[in-house]
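To whoever is on call:

I kicked off a structure prediction for a single chain this morning and the downstream step that reads the tokens threw a length-mismatch warning. I double-checked the sequence; it's 627 residues and nothing unusual in it as far as I can see. Pasting both halves so you can look.
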Amino acid sequence: MEDITRREFLAQGIGAVPVVSGLIVIGSRLGAQETGAGAASGGTAVADALPAKTVLEPFDYRGVTLNESRWRTQYLAAREFYLNVPDDDILKGYRVAAGLPAPGETLGGWAKVNTDEIFGQWLSGFARMYRATGDEAARTKAVGLVRGWAKTFGADGNCRMGTYGYDKMVCGLVDLHLYADVPEAMPLLQSITRWADKTFSRERSRRDRTDPTTYYGLPHEWYTLSENLYRAYQASGDPLFKQFAEVWLYPAYWNKFANTASPPDAQGAHAYSHCNTFSSAAMAYEVTGDPAYLRIIRNAYDYFQNTQCFATGGYGPTERLMTPDGSLGRSLESRPDTAETPCGTWAAFKLSRYLTRFTGESRYGDWMERMLYNGIGASPVPRGRGEAFYYADYRVAGGMKTRYWEGFPCCSGTYIQDVADYHNIIYYKDANALYVNLYVPSTVTWSRGDGDVRVSQETDYPEDSSVKLAMAMQKPARFALPFRVPAWTRGATAAVTRQRVDTTFTPGSRGTITREWRDGDRVELDIPLVMRLEPVDSFHPDRVAAVRGPVVLVLDGDWQDPNFNLPMHNDELARWLVADPKQPGVFHVHPPGGKRVMPKFQPFYAVAENYPYKMYFDRNVPVAKLW
């Protein structure tokens, strides 16, 4: 069952939300359709449940500084672009609709009428930038925009937005309230939410896998309304937000994952938004404490890893979730829209972040890492009039990084949120430990009751396996330092002030060093960057990508060179690929027999725009003799 009608949501009141055999049930009528007759009569009301307990906390965009690196350079370039889009251009459509003077130029592209698709995300990004770095220019930009926008509608809250734009505005206004201390943000959100609560239809249309216009369902991509409204409820305590969040719960899809990571009928849906919807389920868990939600998002994560993700961590060819029958591998033979990258990264970052908080498990950091290096970190920064990177191309025939054909698409909204999130995914904490989740040049200040601890991370990872952590503190402090040991590595080691830690670190878990730390202590980690060939799916064991550590390597496509097949075994690949002494992360190809191969492998993130490359290879296909 895919349909969710207003009557089904309101059948016995929004508060009556029982849990049955791990399923989320909204109202008795919907319960009968989802779980069988009589199912809705049992269970405990979610409204009466206790909030979830979190195991770890991120630094919430405070206390983390990006040090000199490719990722800091990308962040600063993105900041420059977004700050320089003129306010009058951004607000023009809203002012025209309100009959107000509207200087500036229409942005065009997806923003030719107004900026609904991206406006709230830009406000969110500016707020998070300000919280992370104290960037007054980002806050000033956001305040000017939200005040200009607020003048385009009256006290009735009619902001003229549909669910798509409103959802993003909820996120943006919550973030301005939480991270930028903008006093009008919450009153504005209350005003437009009262209007939306009275105005928005609760009718939902069936997502039709065969219809290219409704595979994402209607109304258009409403799937994180619950997430952001629950965040508003947490930030304000206003029950209006909680009640409206419960209207937009999505049991018809979530329940497919209630008791399995291999649902038989989850495919065909819009990939990014249906990954993103699990962030709404995560916030439902945080607010209600209902364990059914946690089981659902755990299973959803495993579903994506097991059946939907390419070696990059990207997913969603032609923006669909694939049937687990080899469709993922076959998709590499057709269209170039292999993965919706900035948006897909945003959904992956969020789901992984929630699961890390709720479970404390290190494995969820592995997806963040892949998407950092091969997703958003491999995406060119927007430029000009919203010329943005949207789709990554992984086809076996080869691809190039190109920008979307219209300006200011949805991925120009999530891009700013992605790069701001760099500050929020490197470290976690609890009362007694500082967790290193990602290996990125950075400094974190951890405020503790017995004094601040500052840890500086020095590394050329993922081009080099060495990571150094330098401790600074006013007085000795005893705490644990857990660090993520990626599932793909082997033989990770650690030393403290050059004394080897005599412990075997298990891939896919955390290594932990607990001791009394002193100012000047140094931790040296080595995370071997294992070289391997990763099949696209189990149905195509010989359709492979070359991967080193978390980084997908691609072959230069600008040489008229004879074809060659990749080896069948990982240890052979490690012998074939020889590091370039002058270009870190770049590898020459030396197959057996002394044949010279001109193209080189390089990290996907290092490939320039409009430069041809080849990511996936069929190693069992006979080499074509072209001359």
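Update from on-call: the warning came from a stale cache, not from the record. Cleared it. Sanity check on the structure: The two ends are 56 Å apart (CA to CA).
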